[in-house]
């Protein structure tokens, strides 16, 4: 655990912060040699960081693994060994030069596919949002029309011109009572007529 913490600190301080400050100094001084030196370092460091994710998962059980990482970081940064320049010139540059066209084609295809995928999901999202909005509006309209159907013409005419009318209880109960009375009278008339015809 202690080795892991020390290796993380070394990578953070000497692998990231110190080179970042040195890159700042190179940009400020506009020295082309320093530009090239630090650009080579950052390319190697990016590859190191990528490889580190995998090696930390599978090789961390090796004895002195973290100490080897610290030594590698020192070797990369040392002005005497010029490790990042050596790795870049001997391995990275020739490999990238030979595969550059393939990598560019792959990146272009990936960019086009990601754009198409983004547009596809964007259209789907808009369709879902539009459908949800239409459903909400339809449901709201249905509730409003049901509410309006519950009022009779009598209910609407009892509202005063200034917007104040009878209480909601009296507005809803009076027409209902009137309807019950009318139905009862119709039933009694039809029963009387039926009894006259049957006798």
UniProtKB/TrEMBL annotation:
A family per Pfam: TB2_DP1_HVA22
An example Gene Ontology molecular-function term: microtubule binding
Biased composition (Polar residues): 159-176
GO biological process, one term: endoplasmic reticulum tubular network organization
InterPro entries linked to this entry: TB2_DP1_HVA22
Keyword entries, A-Z: Membrane, Transmembrane, Transmembrane helix
UniProt region (Disordered), positions on chain: 159-199
Cellular compartments annotated: Membrane
GO cellular component annotations of the record: cytoplasmic microtubule; endoplasmic reticulum membrane; endoplasmic reticulum tubular network
Listed transmembrane segments: 38-66
Membrane topology note: Multi-pass membrane protein
Family: Belongs to the DP1 family.
Protein name: Receptor expression-enhancing protein
